[in-house]
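FIELD: query
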Amino acid sequence: MNVSYRWLQEWIDLTDLSPDQVADLLTRHGVAVEAVRSLNPGLEQVVVGEVLSVEPHPEADRLRVCRVDVGGGEPLQIVCGAPNVAPGQRVPTALVGATLPEARIGEATFRGVASQGMLCSAKEIGMDVRLLPKEQTEGLYVLPPDSPVGMNVVDLLGWDDAVLELDLTPNRSDCLSMVGVAHELSAVLDRPLRLPDWSEGGIGQGPSPVRIALETPQCRRYAAQVIEGARPVPSPLWMQMRLLAAGVRPIDAVVDATNYVMLELGQPLHAFDFDEVRGGRIRVRSGRTGERLRTLDGVDRGLDPSMIVIADEERAIGLAGVMGGENSEITKKTTRIVLESAWFDPGSVRRTSRRLGLRSEASLRFEKGVDPEVIPLALARASRFIVDHAGGRLVGAPVDEGAFRDDRKVVIVRPDKINDWLGVRMAPDEMGKFLKRLGFAVDRSDTAAWRVEIPSRRRDISREIDLAEEVARLYGYDRIPATMPEGQATAARRTPQQRVRESIRRFLTDIGCFEVWTYALQNPASLEPFAGIQSPAPVALMHPMSEERSALRTTLLPGLLDVTAYNVRRDQRDVAIFEIGRVFWAKEAPLRTLPEERELAAVLVCGRFGLHGLGFSGQKADFFAIKGVAEAILEQLGLEAEFVPGIREGLHPGRTARILAGGESVGWAGALHPDVEERWEVPEVYYLELDIQGLVPLLQRESTYRPLPKYPGVSRDLALLVPRDRAAKEVEEWIRRYGGAWLEDVQLFDVYEGTQVPGGFKSLAFRLSYRSEDRTLTDEEVNDALRRMVKALGDLGVQLRAE
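FIELD: result
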């Protein structure tokens, strides 16, 4: 919202305050001012000049020699190249020594003809030509014919002003108008407002030719005034300049009047060609399925019952609060207009404007909610401007339908409670004074609980705590003493789930994996290869921003694959990434209850994986690499991993394992299915997924410690021939069972299937560690334990590979 300092001065005394001081006051009292901008772009010695005559230049076809009256002394001779220069025009004239935004003017000679200044275009004097009509941007900027000759252009254009650019929070819709900001300053400064009679000269008399029917509860008040004879002439220069300062494009006297009143009072208005309102009856109703309307931007739009439509007896003529229809647009042939001022349901306007992509200053105000008390005042104010500036005549009295006359709420306020919240001891009289300065009516008959009536312009006030904030703003945040919080403090500690999450994150980072964050919203097509993972179907959004982000993810894998594919396409084929995030599992389809949210940790590796450094670059990733990562993570958490063959959507059916810990399923590890690799165009990929919430109940609440060993251990490497269908886990359990009391650890470090192994077998190599707590073991003792263990393995069909 751009606020004119001079405009505010018309209603409140600011003579002792500069624009910067006003901005500081507003900011310190809760209405942030982002910037203060002077309207004068740097003009000096630029006055209104009247072109008396125009003669051809004797030596240049495109130049003209003009005699210009600048209001004092002899007319000046100025050489001009503008194609639209003509006698009788009044234009900005830069005198010798004048300063323009991008130039300084001196006396010059053009092809032998002296020039005593410069006739200026809109761009040359620093106007924002993007907001001007095309005819005002080509050639000289022609001023109104009644502009006083010799007057300083800065004064004529109202550029002795500054604009305060407000950065409003969503709740302060009352400050989306000049009068709203004036009310705010009046309260802050405790100075009276000098507001005009908004309805003066704008209320017609007698019967009106327009009839109104409210056929939807989404329009609770609608007022209209018929005006005839209004012409689409330019609005006064002062009005155009105030619109430009606010960032609004001037159009003509009718449209400019509605926009000006919207900025002034915060009430959007719209004008229809009344002769195009068939039957003379305006119906405010819901849109109909299949109904269409070509809006003022020339786009043919489909309507539906969620939209509020302005219609006549036969068709839709406008989208309420959003945009008018082309079929009722005001043209040069228009002789009668009907001016609309109304209250429309904020939610409906918001949904319609977003669905159609039609956001405007008007829709913004309707979305926030307009003040119903201002509706007739804004209608009368705009009607008067149209009569005064467009030559219109009021036809009949305004028609005002709907029972929504005000929106005043009553809030109970306890002064002692406000003092407790703010941490001050404010006298009741001072608190009551602050509330009255804000325009609130205060009933203090009950000294402990006041009844405060809220004006309808302050839609953001509905609770006692809201009024506490209002009191604090006027009291001054800088006057509230800073105090330390009181109460018992407890030492912060992480929850078990947080500890698991951080342990996994730290470990994966330490081994060279990069953490990534991907979208929780995915394309349903990217989730298809993983359909059925804990959920019959992904949860779809009702109003997604795009198809790419229209469903909640059921697995972290698609996001990780997108990251991997992005890197592979850029020739980065060694990828080791992980993500810790939530997935959403629906229990049913269609959804009737909230989906289950589970926090997972997922790892994806492809290419070479492991430590990288000078002379080495890791090893090619395989199933055992990702399995080792899972084992190491669970070991850090004090859990022992067990892997059993399994089938998981999106993973290779023969190279996938379910991960168990404490007999409970806690995740999956395996190779990606070839079809999925082909779809994402990635090389051989391995994936690990752990259920963080499933791990937490398995954690040991207490840790057990034992002394460091006093005696050395003995290691033996054992190569075994194992039937191919015998799981390595089963062999390991057998070794631990029959390895003897001194067996401390068993590690599988090699699996081999090849020509040197008999058919139907595979070679498993284990490293066995032996240690005694009371002495050093001898070779004979260890060898004897090995022989007994190998003999027991024979029952599984396992033998030493050397035999």
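FIELD: remark
DSSP finds 20 helices and 40 strands in the chain.
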